[in-house]
């Protein structure tokens, strides 16, 4: 952990995750938390079908578990669930109850995503984020987005 994230953890007390206030939110909470999410699995499947290999899931890079890491190319891809990472495109409404909790939670998640992006980029990794809605709406485009990261610009 960086000093920054430790500091964050100590000063922001979130307490327990409140009960999901609706079935839809409950579904997205289950779908998007933790390792090997539905999102990651769909992406991995699509990459495999496209013949793209050489990646590892959950590899520790610069103190961060990277969802899809291509170590030999120094490419890191994070698969972000739209709910947990408070997707700027989907702009999902805050859950109806415990709004204060969710506001803080999403603020912390977004700040962490930003730090991770900065840390990996500074360490010389090409960094990409794939959002849940991209995988759900157009899986092929999400794969192409990753493919572009894998191809250094000077070889185009
Ligand atoms: Zn989204």
What do these coordinates show?
Mean pLDDT is 84; it is low at 1-12. Helices cover 47% and strands 13% of the residues. It is an alpha+beta fold and 156 residues long. Zinc ion is lined by residues 82, 87, 89-90, 131-133.
Q: How would you briefly describe this protein structure?
A:
The chain is α+β, with helices and mostly antiparallel strands.
List keywords for this structure.
156 residues, alpha+beta, 6 helices, disordered N terminus, binds zinc ion
- Average pLDDT metric: 84
Q: Distance between the terminal alpha carbons, to the nearest Å?
A: 37 Å
Shape by Cα distribution? globular
Radius of gyration: 16 Å
Q: Fraction of residues in helices?
A: 40-55%
Task: Give a count of the beta strands, DSSP E runs of length 2 or more.
Answer: 5
The count of helical stretches stands at 6
The order of strands across the largest sheet is 3-4-5
What's the helix-strand series?
Answer: HHHEEEEHEHH
Unreliable segments (pLDDT under 50, ≥5 consecutive)?
A: 1-12
Ligands in the model, by name, code or SMILES, are: zinc ion
Beta content: 5-15%
Q: What structural category arises from helix and sheet content?
A: alpha+beta
Largest sheet: 3 strands, mixed
């Amino acid at each position: 952990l960086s000093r920054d994230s430790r500091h964050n953890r100590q000063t922001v007390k979130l307490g327990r995750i409140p009960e999901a206030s609706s079935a839809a939110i409950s579904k997205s909470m289950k779908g998007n938390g933790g390792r090997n999410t539905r999102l990651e699995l769909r992406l991995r499947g699509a990459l495999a079908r496209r013949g793209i290999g050489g990646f590892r899931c959950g590899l520790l890079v610069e103190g961060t578990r990277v969802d899809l890491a291509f170590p030999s190319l120094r490419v890191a891809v994070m698969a972000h669930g739209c709910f947990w990472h408070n997707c700027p495109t989907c702009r999902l409404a805050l859950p109806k109850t415990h709004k204060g909790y969710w506001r803080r939670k999403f603020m912390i998640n977004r700040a962490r995503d930003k730090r991770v992006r900065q840390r990996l980029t500074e360490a010389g990794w090409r960094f990409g984020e794939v959002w849940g809605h991209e995988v759900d709406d157009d899986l092929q485009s999400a794969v192409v987005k990753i493919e572009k990261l894998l191809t250094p610009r000077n070889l185009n």
